Amino acid sequence: TVLIVDFGSQVTQLIARRIREAGVYSEIVPFQSAAEGFRRLSPKAVILSGSPASVTDTDAPTAPMEILEAGVPVLGICYGQQTMCAQLGGNIEGGLHREFGRSFMEVKKASPLFEGIWAEGTRHQVWMSHGDRVTALPEGFEIIGQSSGAPFAAIADEARRFYGVQFHPEVVHTPDGARLLSNFVHRIAGLSGDWTMAAFREQAVEEIRAKVGDGKVICGLSGGVDSSVAAVLIHEAIGDQLTCIFVDHGLLRMNEADEVVAMFRDHYNIPLVHVQAQDTFIDALEGEMDPEVKRKTIGRLFIETFEAEAKKIGGADFLAQGTLYPDVIESVSFTGGPSVTIKSHHNVGGLPERMNMQLVEPLRELFKDEVRLLGHELGLPAHFVGRQPFPGPGLAIRCPGGVTREKLDILRQADAIYLDEIRKAGLYDAIWQAFAVLLPVQTVGVMGDGRTYEFVCALRAVTSVDGMTADFYHYDMDFLGNTATRIINEVRGINRVVYDVTSKPPGTIEWE
Ligand code: XMP
């Protein structure tokens, strides 16, 4: 085990992820309970994370001295490096040398940390994000790397196996960072690297059993990958103590509801309540133009419907959710604070507080692609696990200017044709998300010598790593032309197709 002491950096989970990728099990503990975590886990190595705090603050968080005195290898990253130095007798200077973004570090001395990656005298790109820096080293340390802004960019006390880096090896902008972390856990700490998703599965099952005991759990299925993987995992742990509730809001894509119901009921034999709430949602949305009101209406109705169904089956002690790590970060910025609400996401928050149930969130530490791996591990069909993300409010936010049954129907057909063409062209996996949007605009056309006056359909496709930023997908023009022709020929109600070439920012992926 590797213990990761979290000092509140935005990217601590990325450290854990890199360690998992190196095939080693890790646990993150907040700095306040680091000593306890250290005793409980007896880790073979410790990583100290970055932090928004400054070591020069009066109440600056520190690492427990017992960790630094236990003889285990320690890697301090950014703030972690600084607090380690300060605690061992070095000096930190605040404020003056802010450095953010790409930087280059020169390797001053060979080290097991750099073995097989960086040779002495070479320069490499690293990612910096810090306001303070180390200015005097504790005894036993030496400089192994320097950048122009950080004379102590990488330091080591090889005898004690203490390492500190001012840059962030866990982010992709430090291209060799993952290998450096792998050196730390394999070469320096001697960990074997045989941990896999299979081990995660076993461990998660144990933890769910321990937490739930003989309690009852309900899980809201959305039809997406995350809640499905969570449900299958939880079912493996506790069997029919789990009931899934699938609120069908009528805003799903073609055949989607049937697929979900078939998979859960017939294939996995998981108790499933299929709530046919289409009318409730669509009646409430009819005529509503404002995107935020639409989102909030859907969110509120979802909670009410879910709650009513949960009551019907006699309630439950636990609520299971497929919350992923990025949802945890995003929902923080989506629920007030100084950051601005761009869109109200309805699938995080709200429900647990109202229903007075404890949460079971077995995917809370994972990233999307890791959830997909876990899905494979659990035997979910590949085409299902590989599905592109789909928003909770569904097709409602792809019908700008108001939802009607008729428009949803038109949109569903166009979307199905578009996705079919994408699959046939072998492009599905290269695209983060692709979908059709039905515009509230009618234009004039001519078909078979007759005048038409029908809706415009916009096609959207983006590439992205995490949904936070995105570029439009650069299709071949023939692909677009053929797809447009098919949509116009096959869908009554659409006589014109356009392609959206906006990136994010300044656009968002969805239109509302
Ligand atoms: P935007 O449109 O904000 O979308 O660029 C970023 C990603 O989030 C998805 N999205 C949602 N997902 N509930 C969700 O589960 C929502 O309310 C929601 N709104 C947007 C969107 O599809 C994209 O993947």
What report would you give on this structure?
The two termini are 44 Å apart. The chain has 16 helices and 20 strands. Strand 13 (242-248), helix 8 (256-267) and strand 14 (272-276) form a beta-alpha-beta unit. The longest helix has 22 residues, at 291-312. With 512 residues, it is of the alpha/beta class. It is 35% helix and 23% strand. Helix 15 runs antiparallel to helix 16. The strands form 4 sheets. The protein has a 9-stranded mixed β-sheet, with helices on both faces. The chain has a 5-stranded parallel β-sheet with strand order 14-13-12-15-16, with helices on both faces. The protein has 3 domains: 2-188, Rossmann fold; 197-385, 3-Layer(aba) Sandwich (Rossmann fold), CATH 3.40.50.620; 404-499, GMP Synthetase, Chain A, domain 3 (2-Layer Sandwich), CATH 3.30.300. Residues 343, 345-347, 389, 391-393, 433, 467, 504, 508-510 line the site of xanthosine-5'-monophosphate. It is an enzyme of class 6 (ligase). It catalyses: XMP + L-glutamine + ATP + H2O = GMP + L-glutamate + AMP + diphosphate + 2 H(+). Its EC number is 6.3.5.2. This is GMP synthase [glutamine-hydrolyzing]. Residues 195-387 form the GMPS ATP-PPase domain.
Q: What attributes characterize this protein structure?
A:
512 residues; alpha/beta; Rossmann fold; GMP Synthetase, Chain A, domain 3; 3 domains; nine-stranded mixed β-sheet; five-stranded parallel β-sheet; 23% strand; globular; binds xanthosine-5'-monophosphate
Summarize the structure.
35% of the residues lie in helices and 23% in strands. It is of the alpha/beta class and 512 residues long.
